[in-house]
Amino acid sequence: MRRRQTAWLAAVGAVVLLSWQAQLAHAAENPTDSARPDSGRHCVVGLHAAQLGAATEPQATEPACFDTFAEAIDFATGGRVRLPKDATQVSERQLLAAGAISTARAPVARPLVGIEYQHTNFGGASLTLYGASGTGCYAGTWYGFPDLASLDFDNRISSGRTYSNCIGKHHDGTNYTGTYTYCETSCSTLGSMNDRTSSIKFF
């Protein structure tokens, strides 16, 4: 009798062990959202300049996406700014020193106009936007991206920074419509507009 109980317990233990191993293998192949790194993708888009009041709308380049924020900044600045691999932010001082953002006295080509972040306090995935033409938001020049869904960034922005004399106007509708909020220089949160931005205008 005791031998049968021992054999039965051993069989049950083997089944439980096999089931547990299968679950671990499945989890490794199909990680849940909570198990995935929260860094996400880091994408870069170039925006062509337009003049306020003009009939033409700004156009954008094809997005380029990277595994790290450092790679995205390297690409967005044309190699002018190199960051450590684990960097999640870049300072305005670094950008100025590298000639990656425009000032009234020193306009530059390919200036950064904004960096948008998935989470508050500049965390998570990022979207870096630079001027593919123009030298920043001077003399009535503006840049825009009318539909963030095409970048998989619709309703995902909760903080951001702006550069090159630009103010970021975050709209909850596409094509710069609906409720909006402004971000000037640095916004660790967009408040009631967190995770609601569908289009952005820099002016």
Concise structural overview:
This protein is α+β, with helices and mostly antiparallel strands and 203 residues long. Helices cover 21% and strands 29% of the residues.
Question: Strand tally, please?
Answer: 11
Average of per-residue pLDDT values: 84
Percent helix among the residues? 10-25%
Radius of gyration: 24 Å
Name of the CATH first level of the largest domain: Mainly Beta
| H/E series | HEEEHHEEEEEEEE
CATH topology of the largest domain: Gamma-B Crystallin, domain 1
Distance between the termini: 84 Å
Task: Please characterize this protein's 3D structure.
This protein has 203 residues and is an alpha+beta fold. A hairpin with a 3-residue loop joins strand 8 and strand 9. It is globular. The chain starts with a helix and ends with a strand. The relative contact order is 0.15. The N terminus is likely disordered. This is Peptidase inhibitor family I36.
How do the strands and helices of this protein lay out in sequence?
Blueprint: H1 2-29, E1 42-47, E2 50-51, E3 64-66, H2 69-76, H3 92-97, E4 112-119, E5 123-131, E6 141-145, E7 159-162, E8 167-173, E9 177-184, E10 186-187, E11 199-202
Parallel strand pairs: 1-5
Antiparallel strand pairs: 1-3, 2-6, 4-5, 4-7, 6-11, 7-10, 8-9, 8-11
